[in-house]
Amino acid sequence: MSTSTTRPNPSTDAAGASPAELGVGMRFSIHPHTDRFVDVILGALADVEEAGLTDGLTTETDEVSTYVGATTAPAEQRLAAYLSAVIAAASRRSGGGHVVVHVLLSRGCPGETTCDLSVTGLPDAEPIELEPTGITAAAQWSLYPLLDAGGPASASNNGDDNGNASSGDHMAHIESAIAAAHGRGTAATPAHYATKLTGDIAEVLATAVDAWAQVGAHVPHVVTHLTISVGSPTQSEG
């Protein structure tokens, strides 16, 4: 199962580095619990491409996962819209059965396999706005600010007089993100190494992507990870 779609059209964000310069993207794997998993996976990927949701994105699918790189702004909105649509499509194609998706989003690691974290002018991202899918999801979510101390980019964005977290205080970023998730009603309960999010697929993803992007406005390299489950036969409290 290998597909590739490339629509390179990098543009520079007036507020800072362009998505292509900064390195904004994700890698995800879809795991439908059905014997028809090939049709579900490839069909869902085809659905979002036909809907035009790959515009401004570069996608590469191999036997393990799909890489999606954002080449134009608004990068975070494009990624969130693509991912929400592909998960919803996989759920529909599986007849509402159990589908699990593993997602890793990275901001600040350009060049695919190499990193240049010296970029300056970290851009802000507008809040994510996604149409509800009508499909409820549960997710385990973790956020990792990976360079919150040292380096020219972090020195110019952390520990300022505007209330930003001090240099090296990565827990402040994480706790702020969790508080925001509680505020919008998607954060359910803490878990070992993760926070559980529940709600419509769109709202769960908007919560995680918003937090990731907001931390990325102050930290040159930030990663967030989600394991998302829809249609699970197991219902737990919280």
Automatic annotation (TrEMBL):
Name of the protein described by the UniProt record: YkoF family thiamine/hydroxymethylpyrimidine-binding protein
Provenance organism: Georgenia halophila
Domain Thiamin/hydroxymethyl pyrimidine-binding YkoF putative residue range list: 168-235
Pfam families: Ykof
SUPFAM superfamilies: MTH1187/YkoF-like
Domain of life: Bacteria
